[in-house]
From TrEMBL:
InterPro entries: Homeodomain-like_sf (IPR009057), HTH_RpiR (IPR000281), RpiR-like (IPR047640), RpiR-like_SIS (IPR035472), SIS_dom (IPR001347), SIS_dom_sf (IPR046348), WH-like_DNA-bd_sf (IPR036388). Keywords: DNA-binding, Transcription, Transcription regulation. Pfam families: HTH_6 (PF01418), SIS (PF01380). Residues 4-80 form the HTH rpiR-type domain. CDD domains: SIS_RpiR. Coiled coil: none annotated. One of its GO terms (biological process) is carbohydrate derivative metabolic process. This is Transcriptional regulator, RpiR family. GO terms for molecular function: carbohydrate derivative binding; DNA binding; DNA-binding transcription factor activity. Residues 130-267 form the SIS domain. SUPFAM superfamilies: Homeodomain-like (SSF46689), SIS domain (SSF53697). PROSITE patterns: HTH_RPIR (PS51071), SIS (PS51464). The keyword DNA-binding applies.
Length: 297
């Protein structure tokens, strides 16, 4: 039974369900993204019900258990229309049916689950291996385009702050790839892209590999073209109820990698951060209470 059939069956039988099962049915109908993305235990906690009640509802609908119901909703989320326009059309239709509140709740539920997934042992192991590669690199070349650019920019920004060799492959007039002329053995290309993957990003990874550099890829699938080229791949989930993929988990990954790299670098990182702060203070980069009070006098 697919999601559409389940929703229709729940709606038709809603009034005849026992009180507790009706409460679960209401949860399922009102929180489709949560059903697809959250564990049964977490859903029960948020709904204020017992996990066993969720199982009984699924069995009432002819399913072996609630995991089968969750799987149907997850499959529906993965099979959303291709293309931004088609997903935006779906978004507008859903907004008309459910309103602002339900959409906002589902957005944040999806983001929370994506961040939670990064804490899984396999994900942590990937982060540790990636951080070691980045920390040991002679220089890290940061490459990402379009929605992935802010994530690679942040990694370059923090590496510069801790005194680690870093090159941001960015430039006016399409000169970003020119920075890769200097990449070679001992260097790492930190490259990011999620579906739909940008062609030039994949070409940059191929070029870096051919030049002898190692590759750390931040992407959304082991079937991503970047994963096939990478020495280490860190995976993030990107699906949301919106028409546009989320980059929030990618930012979380970069912030984690930055913390791990800083810890690995130790005292030299502290010295570099102190020098960076002193430099910023020379130019009065940040507003401070001291400067504010001087202007008021």
């Amino acid at each position: 039974m697919d999601r559409s059939a389940l929703q229709n069956a729940l709606t038709e039988r809603f009034a005849t369900l026992p009180t507790q099962l009706r409460a679960v049915a209401r949860w399922v109908l009102d929180h489709p993204a949560d059903v697809a993305l959250l564990t049964t235990r977490e859903q029960a906690k948020r709904a204020g019900l017992s996990p066993a009640t969720f199982t009984r509802l699924a069995q009432r609908m002819g399913l072996p258990g609630y995991d089968a119901l969750r799987a149907a909703y997850a499959a529906s989320l993965r099979q959303r229309p291709d293309g931004f326009v088609n997903r935006a059309t779906e978004l507008l239709e859903r907004h008309g049916d459910e309103g602002d509140g339900a959409l906002a709740q589902d957005m944040f539920a999806a983001l929370a689950e994506h961040i939670r997934a990064l804490r899984e042992p396999e994900s942590i192991a990937r982060l540790e291996r990636a951080a070691t590669m980045l920390a040991d690199a002679r220089s890290v070349f940061c490459f990402g385009l379009r929605s992935a650019f802010p994530a690679v920019y942040m990694l370059d920004y923090i590496r510069a702050m801790i005194g680690a060799g870093s090159v941001l492959c960015d430039g006016a007039g399409g000169r970003g790839v020119d920075a890769l002329r200097r990449i070679g053995p001992g260097d790492v290309l930190f490259v990011a892209s999620v579906s739909p993957y940008t062609r030039l990003t994949v070409e940059a990874a191929v070029y870096a590999r051919d030049k002898g550099a190692a590759i750390v890829a931040l992407t959304d699938s082991l079937h991503s073209p970047l994963a096939a080229l990478a020495d280490e791949t860190v995976l993030v989930r990107t699906e949301t109820p919106s028409f546009f993929h989320t980059m929030t988990p990618a930012f979380a990954v970069v912030e984690c990698l930055a913390a791990l790299m800083t810890a690995k670098q130790g005292k030299p990182a502290l010295d570099a951060i102190a020098a960076s702060e002193a430099h910023l203070d020379v130019f009065s980069t940040y507003e401070t209470a001291h400067r504010t009070s001087r202007r008021r006098k």
